[in-house]
């Protein structure tokens, strides 16, 4: 079937779906990385029994690897909070090196000071598991700016007409849906029209493309009522109950 030749429209800025700039968990990790060098420095001076007011003396006692691990978190925190791709990759590289280094330190010299290394290792693993999630890493990988969506989408596969073209959803929420669409020719900000059924109920609305990737497109409803959203979540819940064993 040929793609629709209808001329697309750009969505007015005030109608675009609300996204949060940064989740609170990202803010927590970003700020934690900014503070980490100062906390580690205090720990180092305490272990070496050196006054924190003698940074030159303390830093001279560290080897090159320890110096890199001490100061790199500042760049990591800036990159994460600024939502930069290099910040995401630098974080992963740093987290892996930090985890390996701390495990080695714990094995070599268990003690009170290295208990802090254990805590950092646990936080590092938690941070890696958090940032590699697709919904968290996606904004770092996009060429165009985007935030993090507020609503969680449910994995629901139904047929949907996008400007009259039959396609299939991967997930649906009360704010939008993700459509399987290889080689999508739409761009973020363009308007489309949707029509689909959930649990026998028909839904029609205009919508806007909010993101495009190699597998499909994320599309958000536009100009819908609270009742429209409430009914969608009700029907999604019914479908989930039917699919439970």
According to DSSP, the number of beta strands is 8
The oligomeric state is: single chain
Average per-residue pLDDT, rounded, comes to 77
Largest sheet: 6 strands, antiparallel, barrel
Which term fits the overall shape? elongated
Provide structural commentary.
It contains seven helices and eight strands, in the order βααααααβββββββα. The strands form two sheets. A six-stranded antiparallel β-barrel has the order 3-4-5-8-7-6. The protein has 245 residues and is α+β, with helices and mostly antiparallel strands. The radius of gyration is 24 Å and the shape is elongated. It has two domains: 24-141; 148-243, Thrombin, subunit H. It starts with 18 loop residues before the first strand and ends with a helix. The longest helix is centred in the first third of the chain and has 25 residues, at 24-48.
List the helices and strands and how they pair.
Blueprint: E1 19-20, H1 24-48, H2 55-60, H3 64-81, H4 85-108, H5 112-131, H6 134-141, E2 148-149, E3 159-162, E4 165-172, E5 176-180, E6 191-198, E7 201-212, E8 216-222, H7 226-243
Antiparallel strand pairs: 1-2, 3-4, 3-6, 4-5, 5-8, 6-7, 7-8
Helix pairs in contact: 1-3, 1-5, 3-4, 4-5
């Amino acid at each position: 079937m040929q793609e629709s030749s209808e001329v697309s429209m750009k969505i007015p800025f005030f109608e675009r779906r609300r996204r949060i700039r940064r989740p609170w968990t990202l803010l927590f990790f970003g700020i934690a990385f900014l503070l980490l060098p100062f906390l580690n420095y205090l720990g180092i001076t305490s272990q070496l029994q050196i006054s924190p007011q003698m940074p030159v003396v303390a830093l001279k006692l560290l080897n090159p690897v320890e110096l890199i691990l001490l100061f790199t978190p500042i760049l990591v925190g800036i990159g994460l909070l600024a939502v930069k791709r290099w910040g995401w990759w630098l974080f992963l590289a740093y987290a892996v090196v930090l985890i390996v280094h701390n495990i080695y330190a714990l094995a070599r010299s268990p003690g009170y000071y290295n208990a802090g290394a254990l805590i950092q290792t646990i936080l590092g693993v938690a941070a890696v598991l958090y940032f590699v999630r697709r919904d968290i890493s996606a904004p770092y990988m996009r060429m165009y700016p985007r935030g993090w969506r507020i609503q969680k989408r449910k994995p629901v596969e139904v047929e949907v007409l996008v400007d009259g073209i039959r396609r299939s959803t991967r997930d649906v929420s009360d704010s939008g849906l993700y459509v399987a669409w290889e080689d999508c020719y739409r761009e973020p900000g363009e308007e489309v029209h949707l029509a689909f059924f959930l649990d026998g109920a028909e839904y029609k609305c205009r919508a806007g493309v909010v993101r495009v990737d190699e597998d499909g497109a994320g599309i958000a409803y536009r100009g819908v009522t609270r009742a429209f959203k409430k009914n969608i979540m009700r029907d999604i819940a019914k479908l989930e109950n039917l699919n439970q064993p």
